[in-house]
């Protein structure tokens, strides 16, 4: 049995029981919009950029030299004790689920939800960045993990933004004091 907890309480996970409600968007629609002021707009004038409201890009949608778009579809949802709705977006290779599920080996929404459903452990009100901490226990091993959240419409570098009226949500999650901040496989069991 694995036990995954936020920084303030215990929740058990055993068998097929999850720690929180997990929902994911089913919509795969995309839209194309012009992005005035793009730093490399002169490379492809009039073409506009593809901005994905939801769904994954196809190979024919990608422009050479332009990084894949930030996927705003929601993978996980949780609400913290202060009533903030914290989402985990699919994102891209640097931010969101697609980043930390590969780089940091967190592949279950229940891990994110366990930390987020507890109190905020670090909050920078100026930058609207928050950290939620949790612990995973298994056979006498205790692994601390961190979930970092951007509770504003765009990332701090303003390179990625969520739909109007929504927040970026989880930027990254990782295990502390582990090689390359990768979580052990047993956490995803």
Notes on the protein architecture:
The chain has two helices and ten strands; from the N terminus they run ββββββααββββ. The protein has 189 residues and is mainly beta. The protein has one domain (2-24, 70-188). The strands form three sheets. Strands 1, 2, 7, 8, 9 and 10 form a six-stranded antiparallel sheet that branches. A two-stranded antiparallel ribbon has the order 3-4. It has a two-stranded antiparallel ribbon with strand order 5-6. A hairpin with a 5-residue loop joins β5 (71-79) and β6. The longest helix has 8 residues, at 109-116. The radius of gyration is 18 Å and the shape is globular. The protein starts with a strand and ends in a 14-residue tail after the last strand. The relative contact order is 0.19.
- Structural class of the secondary elements? mainly beta
Alpha plus pi helix count = 2
Termini, distance in Å?
A: 9 Å
Broad shape: globular
Element-by-element helix/strand order: EEEEEEHHEEEE
Radius of gyration: 18 Å
* Sheet of most strands: 6 strands, antiparallel
Question: What number of domains?
Answer: 1
Q: Segments where pLDDT lies below 50 for 5+ residues?
A: 10-57
Fraction in beta strands = 25-35%
Number of E strands: 10
- Approximate helicity band: under 10%
Average pLDDT number: 76
Region (Disordered): 1-56
Biased composition (Polar residues): 24-33
């Amino acid at each position: 049995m694995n036990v995954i907890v936020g920084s303030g309480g215990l929740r058990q996970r055993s068998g097929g029981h999850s720690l929180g409600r997990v929902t994911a968007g089913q919509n795969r629609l995309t839209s194309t919009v012009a992005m005035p002021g793009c730093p490399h707009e002169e490379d492809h004038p009039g073409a506009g950029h593809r901005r994905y409201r939801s769904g994954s890009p196809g190979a024919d949608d990608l422009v050479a030299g332009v990084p894949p778009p930030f996927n705003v579809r929601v993978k996980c949802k949780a609400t913290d004790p202060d009533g903030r709705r914290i989402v985990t977006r699919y994102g891209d290779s640097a931010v969101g689920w697609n980043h930390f599920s590969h780089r940091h080996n967190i592949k279950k929404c229940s891990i994110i939800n366990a930390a987020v459903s507890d109190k905020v452990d670090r909050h920078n009100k100026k930058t609207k960045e928050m950290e939620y901490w949790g612990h995973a226990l298994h056979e006498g091993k205790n692994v601390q993990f961190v979930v970092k959240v951007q509770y504003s419409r765009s990332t701090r570098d303003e390179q990625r933004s969520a739909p109007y009226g929504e927040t970026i949500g989880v930027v990254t999650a990782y295990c502390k004091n582990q090689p390359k901040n990768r979580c052990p496989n047993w956490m995803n069991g």
